[in-house]
Amino acid sequence: MTQDKPLTGHALVDKVKELGDLSKEEKARACGYYTQTKNGVERVNMMKFLNALIDAEGIELDSSAEGQGRGGRSASYKISVQSNGNLLIGSAYTKKMNLQPGDEFEITLGRKHIHLKQVGAPDEDEI
Predict the structure, then answer these.
(1) Contact of 33 with 6, CB cutoff 8 Å
(2) Most exposed: 8, 59, 78, 92, by fewest CB within 10 Å?
(3) CA 110, 113, 114 angle in degrees (round to 5)?
(4) Where is the SpoVT-AbrB domain (predicted)?
(5) What is the Cα–Cα distance from 39 to 17, expressed in whole angstroms?
(6) Reported pTM
């Protein structure tokens, strides 16, 4: 089976989990991370596969200062509901807000939005 485009994001993570006990190379190939040379030899691109997997999991490896160098992924301000129904807010956002482990929030649901208010934080109109 030949794929038009390698899998990325949640689709990539789900496929890798689905493939279970296969080797890394077999998983990379099944997710579309391979090319064929002019001679018809198949080459698996492990670096692209592993980088895509790291990005899909939201892991930041670069620790350079903000605004300098590449610095990893930037916040896109978009998230998707995961296959298990969860919404995950990545560390790029929590770092930007200087949040710490254990910080608590009240959740208010609107028709098409979720509002988070940090417990103990002053209301915006009080600032």
Answers:
(1) yes
(2) 78
(3) 85
(4) 76-121
(5) 32
(6) 0.47
Per DSSP, the residues of the chain read ---SS---HHHHHHHHHHTTTS-HHHHHHHTT-EEE-TTS-EEE-HHHHHHHHHHHHT-----PPTTSS--SPPP-S-----TTS-----HHHHHHTT--TT--EEEEE-SS-EEEEETTPPPGGG-
pLDDT tens figures, 10-54: 899 999 999 989 999 999 999 999 998 888 889 999 999 999 998
Taking the C-alpha atoms of 104, 81, 111 and 93 in order, what is their torsion angle to the nearest 10 degrees?
Answer: 40
Stretch 78-107: mean pLDDT, rounded?
86
- Dig out the tokens for 104 from the structure: 């608590």
